[in-house]
Amino acid sequence: VGEGGEITYKKIQSSQIMGSIQLGIQHAIGGLASKPERDLLMQDFMTVETTNFPHEGSNHTPAHHYSEFKFKTYAPIAFRYFRDLFGIQPDDFLMSMCSAPLRELSNPGASGSIFYLTNDDEFIIKTVQHKEGEFLQKLLPGYYLNLDQNPRTLLPKFFGLYCYQCNSKNVRLVAMNNLLPSSIKLHQKYDLKGSTYKRKANKSERQKTSPTYKDLDFMEHHTEGLFLEADTYNALIKTMQRDCRVLESFKIMDYSLLVGIHNLDEAQREKTEARKRTDSGQSDGDDAEGEPRKGLNRTRSINRQRLVAHSTAMESIQAESEPIDEEEDVPPGGIPARNARGERLLLFLGIIDILQSYRLRKKLEHTWKSMIHDGDTVSVHRPSFYAQRFLDFMAKTVFKKIPSLDLPEIKGNH
Ligand code: ATP
Ligand code: CA
Ligand code: CA
């Protein structure tokens, strides 16, 4: 946060970054229309297109009132192919990215990245470090070789890599799929790694209206874990195993599973409470902070299909479930689950923050300490150690199978 309360990144006002990147992306997508679709070539992963955006405009850029800037688009043809892989039409991408102002999210991470959400809830734009941007460029061919074979995955899907340059500062940005719906209340949110070293949300995070909690908090809140039907559990764990194998093959670590929990029963109680309060003449609290965002977009984003194909949590793990018909205003695709009290939950989840490669990682004191703490001393095995611990935690501590009612020991007692 800069002076006067304005959010800044590298001393550039966030509102300026948002507006400028929308101009940049609009130009980049528009420019692609003249390039016919064709098979991807290896060199498509290496191209970078640069455009100047002077104040007064130019032959192919509009006039604008932001600071003059340069906009770089990395691997435009390759990313067009990836968007196509996930069924995203150029016009739809343009509409999502550029037709309405972006919304800035508060970031619980320590990295200082800024996150923007598109107004239709489909995409997130995240600022990344130079190293991360470079890593994504190198990762692209191999990564998408994998997504092409297996689009049903919880791995992040990247739809664009850009660099906004202004006053000799570089702001690198990736566009990716948004995992958490903003049209409903997420009663809890967790960023889970399978580590217990310093994995507790700090005080300032806990004071937020919608905090992102960590591993130790999860174990405290859900001592027995989250319960899934056997088929759903198996599909979820299988998907994560497959995804972790890919991450390990790229020596990636430090990723998290992001889990958003909507508690249907709690939501029901909140509704009843709110109704009681209105009936007794008090304000209904609908505008309270932390309430889901309402507006024109709401009904549209809830009832229609997601723009990005196979991108809901249920589609990602290739599972199916009965639609929950009595809750018509809940976005589709959440994974049905129960907490230990038997309350009905919907989980929205995916793997995030994968642009840290072990090879490129800085050897901060924290990481050495956590390595010793976690008992991981053989450094060549670190990415595989990380993946194994991550999977163990998810399969044993976070997610549990609902015991089948058909089991003889349960049946016998009824
Ligand atoms: P770190 O300090 O861990 O490096 P970071 O700045 O790299 O943090 P991430 O770990 O990528 O940030 O994400 C931080 C938070 O942003 C997550 O805990 C989550 O709340 C939100 N977030 C990140 N990616 C997504 C996504 N694809 N969809 C929805 N929310 C996301
Ligand atoms: Ca992270
Ligand atoms: Ca990070």
Short characterization:
By secondary structure, the chain is of the alpha+beta class.
Describe this protein's structure.
The chain has 414 residues and is of the alpha+beta class. It contains 13 helices and 15 strands. The strands form four sheets. It has a seven-stranded antiparallel sheet with strand order 3-4-8-9-7-6-5. Strands 10-12-14-13 form a four-stranded antiparallel sheet. A hairpin with a 5-residue loop joins β13 (335-338) and β14. α1 packs antiparallel against α3 (90-98). Residues 284-290 and 294-303 have low confidence and may be disordered. The structure holds adenosine-5'-triphosphate (ATP) and calcium ion (2 copies). One calcium ion is lined by residues 109, 111, 353, 356.
How many alpha or pi helices? 13
From the alpha carbons, calculate the radius of gyration and give it in angstroms.
22 Å
The CATH topology of the largest domain corresponds to Phosphatidylinositol Phosphate Kinase Iibeta, Chain: A, domain 2
Mean pLDDT: 85
Give the strand order of the largest sheet, numbering strands 1, 2, ... along the chain. 3-4-8-9-7-6-5
Q: Spell out which ligands are present.
A: adenosine-5'-triphosphate, calcium ion
Main pleated-sheet profile: 7 strands, antiparallel
Task: Tell me the number of structural domains.
Answer: 2
Question: Kindly, what is the distance between the CA atoms of the first and last residues, rounded to a whole number of angstroms?
Answer: 60 Å
Quaternary state of the chains: single chain
How helix-rich are the residues, as a percent range?
25-40%
